[in-house]
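Recap for those who missed Tuesday's class. We walked through two folding examples back to back. For each one, the amino acid string is listed first and its predicted structure tokens come directly after. Nothing is annotated here on purpose, so try labeling regions yourself before you check the end of the notes.
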Amino acid sequence: MTDSYRIRRARSADLDALLALEQRAFHTDHLSRRQYRRHLRSTTAVVLVASDAAGLLGKALVFFNARTDIARLYSIAVSERARGQGLGAVLLAAVEKAARRRGSRRMRLEVSQQNPAAIRLYERHGYRRIGERRGYYENGEHAWRYEKQLGAG
């Protein structure tokens, strides 16, 4: 990964790359092309991507609900060539900033109990475990629930 990547909103032209990243990054619960299309147009979702001249390096998807001040981080994924270089933390900071701009005061997420790297990322960035969802994923894996107070940004 070069230092010349940028974080931006995803667009329709990113669909193929988003789907390919989704398939490589997650072994279950994949978003479909149709779901991504809907999220790209939605006023209650933000899809951010990190990209460089060679293509997509990572993505983050966050949902908003007008009836609550809680944003929900649905997923973060980083491509193989960008792993271990802090891009997950950059994407996490970017979705937190987007959530604060939307008036969210808290961010919640679920993470597979079988994903220690993601758990470390969230805990290092101030997320605290608030519960468990047993059998949460399609393959039966359990998830931890986390929350972070976003505060002023």
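Example two. Treat it independently of the first, because the proteins are unrelated.
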Amino acid sequence: MRKLAGVIESQQFDQQTLNEIFRAAAEMETLHSSDLLRGKTMASLFYEPSTRTRMSFEAAMCRLGGQVISTENARQFSSKAKGESLEDSIRVISAYCDVIVLRYHKEGGASRAQQFSKVPVINAGDGRGQHPTQALLDLYTIIKAFGKISGLTIAMVGDLANGRTVRSLSYLLAKHYSDNKIVFVSPAQTRMGSDVKQYLTSCKIAWEETDDLKTVAPCSDVIYQTRVQRERFQDGDSAIYEQVIKDSERFNINSETLDSMKKNAIIMHPLPRVTEISYTVDSDPRARYFEQAENGLYVRMALLKMILAGY
């Protein structure tokens, strides 16, 4: 029996492991309670605010019979406020649990933590870096909608420079699903990073960049909308932030966007949303963002099982 050693970045997965994760997630959809992880403890360590990621991980652990220890806003209400390093915190906390779910405010936090942890670490988001479990649930949502991830045009829209979810999803698509096309739609100030684009090119996945959602929407199978990441703009960047907000208004999804889209296309969003998707869109069957969030529970149950019980 194999076990996952942890989840640090999207690129770590091979195709066989991805298939195992999605198979296990499908099983978890019908599993409301289990004693599989009885006696196991998950530490929920979040240095940045979170609703869906944190609660879905904690619910996942509880459904599998395990228990959760946590601290509310570790950046303010843990020893971090006293100046303790991440490395020292991890050394101590890993002695109290069987797995650590870590959200850190700086890129590379999960990788640093894994070096000093006695137990597996799951990256629940690290600054502008990655959010690999979100990418996994995004892929799972696409598979459920289309039955495959092949021959699709996937538009990623919004603040792509600061959105770790679209970065992680791009890496996974490039490595394992290169027979798709990615279109980056954003203001000039928040274009996708060159590291991701170079990786896409090296994997021979087709991609392009534009600031015109109206042209892209009619030919897209997936529109992956994101919000402007206000927390990623420094205090001195307020003017840039306001300009990005203004420039992003033309990317908002509304009834006009729906009229131009394919009938079998889907709209995704990692949430929370602000104004970038109109509430009138929610009742359209192509709106999959709440289903997407629910899928996070099943994927994270699958990951905890594969890390702590094996597969």
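Answers for example two:
The CA atoms of residues 87 and 113 lie 6 Å apart.
The beta strands are 41-46, 67-71, 99-104, 121-126, 153-157, 181-185, 206-210, 222-225, 266-268.
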